[in-house]
Amino acid sequence: METEKQKILDILEKSGIKDASFCAFLPLLPYLIECRAKARLPKNAKTVIPCIFPYKVKSKSPKNISRYSAVPDYHRVLSDYLSNATDNLRKQFPQNKFEFFIDNSPIPEVRAACIAGLGVKGDNGLLITDKYGSYVFIGEIVTDLEIECCEEYRECLHCGMCKKFCPKKDDIGCLSEITQKKGELDIKEITAIKKYKTIWGCDICSEVCPMNRDKEYTYIKEFKEGYKNEYTDGEDISGRAFEWRGPKVIKRNFDL
Ligand code: B12
To answer: Domain of 57?
Structure first.
């Protein structure tokens, strides 16, 4: 078993994925997220291999967007790494099935990564890792290969900072969600976007988190090279994390 684990980690590392671990599929079963991608789950799935990809860039802080949207679209970047890794795993274990997922995934990614021991579950709902804090994306490979997994998860310090500073205190919902909403915004939502000066996503709970202090920056070259710290009026948004939403929503927020 141990050798299989090591073999997998070696293949992932050769495919450019440095941080990964293992979580049994069974404890995730009651929490699976309903989505189209669920149909791609391997029959008799046994193990989930969550992989983390740090995205904080050592460069100018973003101006009007959140950190995760200042790097090139993570769906595309992670897909390249995970699809390469999945191909390599299929070659090494031809009798087994491997499928990768990112974000649009039936896997509750934070929970899976916490159970796999990649970090702790923050009160802000995010995975907080020792090395990079919460500035990580999660993607995963699901397989029918049975691997012994740890099942110990830890929680954050419960210091209360994320809750204290979260814009939800202004009697609105999650600001990140508001910036992504289609259609018209109500007056409270408009006021919040203006007050917190973000037109896509929100970093407040991460920025105030003491577990995010003095953490490592990203090593991922696509994130470093394609970093763009603001949305400029009318720009072509292809390849941006907000491309999926279309240009109207970000333009609406910009124009407020
Ligand atoms: C929908 C979604 C959103 C929505 C709704 C968020 C939400 N909390 O539901 C919106 C648009 C608001 C959003 C915002 C953001 N998101 Co988002 N989002 C997702 C997505 C696609 C699904 C989440 C979901 O619906 N889960 C199901 C519901 C039921 O989960 P839940 O309410 O969070 O509860 C779960 C956990 O809290 C956990 N849990 C509860 N109690 C406990 C206790 C323990 C001990 C453990 C281990 C777990 C646990 O179990 C619950 C069920 O699984 C995931 C990707 C994925 N497939 O998981 C990304 C994801 C969670 N988002 C991510 C990111 C980066 C963000 C933002 C930081 C982006 C930004 N800068 O604006 C913000 C953060 C906002 C916040 N503080 O939550 C990352 C998080 C990475 C990380 N470090 O954790 C993910 C994993 C995407 C990715 N592939 O990297 N997101």
So the answer is: 2-155
